[in-house]
Amino acid sequence: MTSQPSPRRGRGRRPAAEVREGVLRAAAGLLLAEGVKAVTFDRVAAAAGSSKVTLYKWWPSAGALAAEAYFTHSEQRLEFPDTGDLRADLTAQMRAFVRLLTEDRTGPVIAGLIGVAQTDPELSAAFSRHYSGPRRALALATFEKARARGELRDDLDLRILVDQLWGACYHRLLIPDEPLTEEFAVALVDNALDGALARRPGDPDEAPAA
Amino acid sequence: MTSQPSPRRGRGRRPAAEVREGVLRAAAGLLLAEGVKAVTFDRVAAAAGSSKVTLYKWWPSAGALAAEAYFTHSEQRLEFPDTGDLRADLTAQMRAFVRLLTEDRTGPVIAGLIGVAQTDPELSAAFSRHYSGPRRALALATFEKARARGELRDDLDLRILVDQLWGACYHRLLIPDEPLTEEFAVALVDNALDGALARRPGDPDEAPAA
DNA sequence: AGTCATATGAACTCGCTGTCCATATAAAGG
DNA sequence: CCTTTATATGGACAGCGAGTTCATATGACT
Known about the structure:
Two copies of one chain form a homodimer.
Chain A: H1 16-34, H2 41-48, H3 52-58, H4 62-73, H5 86-101, H6 106-117, H7 121-148, H8 158-174, H9 182-194
Chain A binds a DNA duplex (30 and 30 nucleotides) through residues 10-16, 19, 40-43, 50-54, 56-57, 62.
């Protein structure tokens, strides 16, 4: 009788894990359905059937709660293909990333989280720790391997390469002056690998501008 | 007494231009002093000594008001050096951009505006129209000229080059996993122009991956 | 001067924030 | 099994901002 987990569970203390789980589930629901702005302490508490006070105890800001809810419930695969052909692997990776960012729900959610992060340090930290950080590290590791294989220049700052590629995609996501497409992803990789210069730098005589 | 333009100007209609000017000035003050979050209709109206109703009539959202205030009062120079040496010009431009983004006030303000824009379509449109759009067009024009001079590859999508360069800077501004420095700007330009590959593509025979 | 357009203050509803209680109950200890 | 302690709960609260409505005062135009 008393061990039944549900029927009239209303008032007093409930196990912390159970409460947290319910709150995160409710927050994720609101986040995916209505966007970041809908994730307020008030609405999450109401949707989860919990008390606002409980939420304030565990999460420093609504943004941090939204971030944790998203990262918890979206189990993204963090994998890089590594076939030994950097251009092919990178192209596949960037296409997948663009596909993720242009999905109906995912794109706006990620953009919204980054947006709120600009005025919510807690969310910013959570985003770096759970999302952008690991991905950056993974990309870097892939580049290290490619460089060890001799595919990349030795004098390159690989971190900058990450900004050139992922940053370009985020740029089109966050400041949508140009469309974010898979063709963009493909051309982006080529640009980054081959460079923009017309004169191939292999030539000893740099053609003078005349 | 009654013709004095200021002392007891309280009640009735005032010239639209004068009101708008005061509102924008107040909004810019709040924006620079306390950030985007401080630019609310309530506070701007109070600071400008105007009525909230007036603000609602002219600006669709607090974000749009903040954007207009910023663009109006920050008269940025929209110039590109064009000495005929693309690498030097671009390096100068990116250094200046990074310097702008890392200024005490400007950086957070721009980041905040982009952040709010993720959930404020009006602000997003204003940002594109007044800020990112013109800058993108200017950069593109510079690249066109460089390409006409033969400095850039003919098959290049120049718009992507813009994303690689400016997008990388915005990336470090908005998702601060790595520092945004002038050294970064310099290396970024080199990366974009020279490419990341170790094999110089100048060779007529493209080395097959085997 | 008279008329019209409109900026104004005040008041209002609503939602969200952040914090205060007293209470009910789960978990731990005897 | 009973007691104690920790804590989740509902309710209430003040404060702020969004967004609207109203009557009024006054600049601008005829």
